Amino acid sequence: TNRTFTMIKPDAMKNGHAGAILDKIIKSGFRIVALKQTKLTEEKAGEFYAVHKARPFYGELVEFMSSGVIIAAILEKDNAVADFRTLIGATDPSKADEGTIRKLFATSVGENAVHGSDSDENAKIEGDFFFSGLEQF
Ligand code: ATP
């Protein structure tokens, strides 16, 4: 499909980058389908990242993602999933291309400013995790 899901993570929220990140997303041609500020409990963060349960950084990731408010959003554009991953850059900001959101705003591989879905299937699952059908325009 033509949708992806993103979160502006607690590090970027605390560092005051939310406005600049949303500006870059919109100027890159993504339309906002749904958007909210919210805070994940540890339980909800654990559920969202359940696919990473076996990874060594899972505990750290769940703790970090529940450490402060986030912005969750569903975005629409042709080729949304792939184009958004190009816009955010590599997971590790030190390896991210110049001009990408992670290069500009991320702190470290763990505290990396934004999430972007890795497939159309996960984009739908992740968007529905945060938003009901009635909230998606
Ligand atoms: P995302 O799914 O958030 O868009 P990604 O697909 O670039 O990120 P994944 O490998 O799926 O990266 O990891 C998910 C998240 O787990 C990363 O965004 C990062 O916050 C965290 N993470 C990944 N690798 C590490 C690591 N080595 N140490 C700490 N945290 C990590």
Automatic annotation (TrEMBL):
GO terms for biological process: CTP biosynthetic process; GTP biosynthetic process; UTP biosynthetic process. Keywords: ATP-binding, Cytoplasm, Kinase, Magnesium, Metal-binding, Nucleotide metabolism, Nucleotide-binding, Phosphoprotein, Transferase. SMART domains: NDK. The active site is at H115. InterPro entries: NDK-like_dom (IPR034907), NDK-like_dom_sf (IPR036850), Nucleoside_diP_kinase (IPR001564). Residues 1-135 form the Nucleoside diphosphate kinase-like domain. Its EC number is 2.7.4.6. GO terms for cellular component: cytoplasm. GO terms for molecular function: ATP binding; metal ion binding; nucleoside diphosphate kinase activity. ATP binds at K9, F57, R85, T91, R102, N112. It is found in: Cytoplasm. Belongs to the NDK family. Homotetramer. Major role in the synthesis of nucleoside triphosphates other than ATP. The ATP gamma phosphate is transferred to the NDP beta phosphate via a ping-pong mechanism, using a phosphorylated active-site intermediate. This is Nucleoside diphosphate kinase. It comes from Flavisolibacter ginsengisoli DSM 18119.
